[in-house]
Write a sequence for this structure.
């Protein structure tokens, strides 16, 4: 395994973590202990990389789409991963003390900046296996043979993230626009050592058609099975996309995905669906309907325009809880002054689903929900909103919030996590400012760890940084 320099820095860049209640909800006894910057100066810019890795100066420091995982073998060991420098490569930050301090480590072989040959690496996901092996999946892209190709790769670590292997290639597609790879999600098996699973979308015809693929490892990530298509039979004139894979405690695989209209320029997803596998991906159930999703667009309250190319793009967040519980959360924006964060629940391993219930009902735009569940059944949800924005002040004031429920989602309490920050300068290389997904994991019996991206002021290098927040919920048994 190749060892890369560990660029250490203490948890700095503390930003506001005040408790606020802008609307009538239960006063939360959850406590945000700190909000820490876990990214540092770009490791691909001078003086770390003398030639700046060929990057335009405007890209240096721009970070995007973080994920986070907790080591079950050593619960104080956390790994966060995020896209660095406008998707030039993916980088991990590692904590050995429960999130108090973090160090940055480079993932070898992904792009020209880390010893590879591709131009870009993005859409990173991280997961820990039962034996403490960590896996990071990354699609990469670059020009070869006269075309632009995508490759899906996985790096692995057996020492808690201090060093990483060269990547193993899982899939390859292209040239663009005939084919591409997108939105891989990796999850390790919580019970079986050396087992992990990976799903992703193969795009065709300039992204207007998609097919979901699956691969698994039983060797701790050293080898992976040949990609196999998940047999999804979409509704007429629809195409599946954006699989979110999870593993129940009994080993059942739950794959939650969305459907889009078959179009070169889809207006947004139309529904959330599930397929299940009880034999570790060898076969899959028919499609199970979770919920419909009307077209929903996030707009700038002052200008009215959609934010980025992904203003209508809803990526549901998925979490599994005790027993066979599965939760799916997403946002629905009715207007510039009305929105909801919604949650659907299954108590039988994804076979049947409740009607969506509101986690939050806001008189502003609330968006990008992320859900996680503690071992005791506490449900946690983070999301952003514009409730503190002042019309006409030349900023799009944004905050991150946390809601939690001890009674299965019947009632919720709210705490302020971070902000305010101005969303307008945020880069949107994947379509939406800050990213399509963020990280939220249970830590211990009642804590949560959140990773997110926020703009920074002043923008000495880049406009965004990646942050970690540890959130403590009260000791109250779930019903």
């Amino acid at each position: 395994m190749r060892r890369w320099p560990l660029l250490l820095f203490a948890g700095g860049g503390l930003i506001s973590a005040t408790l606020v209640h802008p609307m009538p909800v239960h006063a939360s006894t959850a406590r945000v202990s700190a909000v820490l910057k876990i990214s540092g100066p770009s490791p691909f810019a001078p003086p770390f990389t003398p030639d700046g890795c060929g990057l335009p100066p405007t890209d240096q420091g721009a970070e995007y789409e973080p994920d986070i995982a907790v080591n079950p073998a050593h619960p104080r060991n956390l790994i966060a991963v995020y896209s660095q420098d406008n998707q030039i490569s993916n980088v991990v930050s590692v904590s050995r003390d429960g999130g108090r301090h973090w160090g940055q480590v480079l993932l070898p072989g992904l792009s020209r900046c880390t010893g590879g040959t591709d131009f870009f690496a993005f859409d990173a996901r991280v997961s820990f296996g039962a034996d403490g092996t960590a896996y990071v999946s990354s699609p990469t892209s670059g020009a070869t043979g006269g075309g632009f190709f995508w490759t899906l790769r996985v790096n692995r670590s057996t020492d808690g993230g201090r060093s990483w292997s060269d990547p193993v290639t899982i899939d390859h597609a292209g040239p663009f626009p005939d084919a591409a790879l997108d939105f891989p999600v990796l999850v390790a098996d919580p019970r079986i050592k050396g087992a992990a699973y990976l799903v992703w979308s193969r795009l065709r015809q300039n992204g207007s058609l998609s097919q979901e693929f699956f691969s698994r490892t039983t060797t701790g990530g050293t080898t992976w099975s040949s990609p196999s298509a998940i047999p999804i039979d979409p509704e007429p004139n629809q195409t599946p996309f954006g699989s979110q894979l999870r593993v129940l405690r009994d080993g059942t695989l739950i794959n939650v995905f969305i459907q889009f209209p078959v179009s070169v320029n889809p207006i947004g997803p139309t529904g959330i669906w599930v397929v299940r596998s009880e034999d570790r991906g060898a076969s899959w159930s028919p499609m199970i309907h979770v919920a419909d999703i009307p077209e929903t667009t996030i707009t700038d309250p002052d200008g009215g325009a959609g934010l980025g190319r992904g203003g209508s793009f809803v990526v549901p967040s998925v979490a599994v809880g005790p027993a066979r519980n599965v939760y799916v959360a997403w946002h629905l924006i009715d207007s510039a002054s009305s929105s909801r964060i919604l949650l659907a629940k299954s108590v039988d391993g994804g076979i049947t689903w409740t009607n969506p219930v509101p986690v939050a009902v806001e008189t502003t735009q609330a968006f990008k929900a992320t859900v996680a569940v503690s071992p005791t059944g506490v449900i946690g949800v983070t999301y952003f909103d514009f409730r503190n924005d002042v019309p006409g002040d030349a900023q799009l004031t944004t905050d991150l919030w946390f809601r939690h429920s001890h009674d299965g989602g019947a009632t919720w309490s709210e705490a302020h996590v971070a902000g305010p920050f101005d969303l307008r300068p945020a880069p949107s290389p994947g379509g939406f400012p800050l990213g399509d997904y963020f990280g939220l994991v249970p830590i211990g019996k009642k804590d949560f760890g959140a990773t997110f991206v926020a703009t920074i002021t002043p923008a000495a290098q880049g406009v965004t940084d990646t942050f970690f927040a540890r959130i403590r919920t009260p000791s109250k048994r779930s019903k």
The first strand starts at residue 7 and ends at 10. The domain at 7-472 is CATH 2.120.10.10 (Neuraminidase).
